[in-house]
Amino acid sequence: MRASKAVIARRANCPYFAKAELLADYLQKNLPNFRIHKIAQHPDNWEQWLVDICEKNGWKHKHSPIIWRELLDRGGKGLLLGGFNDFLEHAQHYYGITSYMLSEEMLRIAEENLQTNIDIEKEEEELKSLINPLRGYKHYKIHSLVHLTISPHTVSTCIVSGRKFLG
After folding, report:
1. Residue burial 55-77, b: 16+ Cβ < 10 Å; e: rest
2. Lowest-pLDDT range, 23-37, 53-67, 89-103, 136-150?
3. For the segment 36-92, what is each residue's pLDDT rounded down to a tens digit?
4. Residue ranges covered by each domain of the chain
5. CB 19 within 8 A of CB 101
6. Which CATH class, in words, describes the domain spanning 4-122?
């Protein structure tokens, strides 16, 4: 049997994502060839992101979440399953598994997911603001910046155009 991956992309405050995530996590835990990948978009970015991903893949979908299936050994654009109800029907038909969640719990989880997304975006912006160009190496592009904490000192390692510099 081929390994497959379900991709669940959603607006960060989507209440239906909570149900889809619960079902997908269960499938991943109980089916050896099933994997899941989750993508969150801030509500302000969701509409444009959805348009872009649908145009890229030739899909038509208007709501959060959007769920598609990919074969892990094949690559490519994947097969659009649709929204939560479509994913639920897919799981019921192919795996004989369904999911239940109360609306109150769905809404609570959606609020938590939005706050987590906002916190992650703030943290990423804060980390970006800490990156300063290296003096004398302004013409090099920084490919990645890694901070290693070695008690009681912090050691920073920069990979700059394939060369390693310690600071």
Report:
1. eeeebebeebbbbbbbeeeeeee
2. 136-150
3. 999 989 999 999 999 999 999 999 999 999 999 987 666 667 899 999 889 988 888
4. 4-122, 131-166
5. yes
6. alpha beta
Entry pTM: 0.60
The distance from CA 51 to its chain's CA centroid, rounded to whole angstroms, is 17
Q: Which residue is associated with the tokens 């509500």?
A: 43
Distance CA 150, CA 108 (A): 39
Q: Going along the chain, which residue ranges are E strands?
A: 4-11, 34-41, 66-71, 79-82, 142-150, 153-160, 163-166
Beta strand 163-166 with 153-160 is antiparallel
Pairwise CA distance, residues 91 & 71, whole Å: 16
Q: Alpha-carbon distance 113 to 121, whole Å?
A: 12
3-state secondary structure of 57: helix
